[in-house]
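Pasting as-is:
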Amino acid sequence: MADSRTANGGRGEDEPLLGRAGDASQQEDQGLQFNFLIGTAVIAQVGIWLLLNSAGILLITQGILLLQPTHTPKQKVQGAHLHAIFNSTGTLALVAGLIVIEYNKISHAGGHFESPHAILGIITYVLFFLQALVGVAQFYTPSVFGSVDNAKSIYKYHRMSGYVLLVLSLVTVSLAVETGFNKSSLHLQLWAVVVLAVITLIGVLPRIKKQKLGL
């Protein structure tokens, strides 16, 4: 048994569904954290990263669509509560996606923030986090801004930046098609991503109420 483990680099003889014996086995001197990346786990990490980011943008878009039509005081309060839930959850999903991809890059000594997609992506992540932080503070702890009226006075800027961030996130997604991983593995087409982004904006932007932006 010891000889067979040595021949396989200490990985044992368990044969995965795809690959050779030991390809998906933890080495005896390896920590558990490496199990996240052994064998085809890297593909799973990319998949969950895409799902987390897609879920994040999906939830944030739902938060926008939910709040846009509200106009009575009761509707606005109810909508704001759900808007906060959707957007906070979406932001957490984006952060989780960032952690997954960065862990993957660090584990493989990959480059960080080198492509336009990566650079714009980290900017978008940070801005989404700040957007969520300001939004929650405005609604739930308006005293941070001095008074409720002061907090309400900057609602329009929160709304404007929210729409800008939605566009920015869709541009970031579109830039992903130029990454090496997409070209070698996913093969997503730029035209398809752009069409979906445009369809999303066609559904969201016409519902903007000018008075809510102070126009």
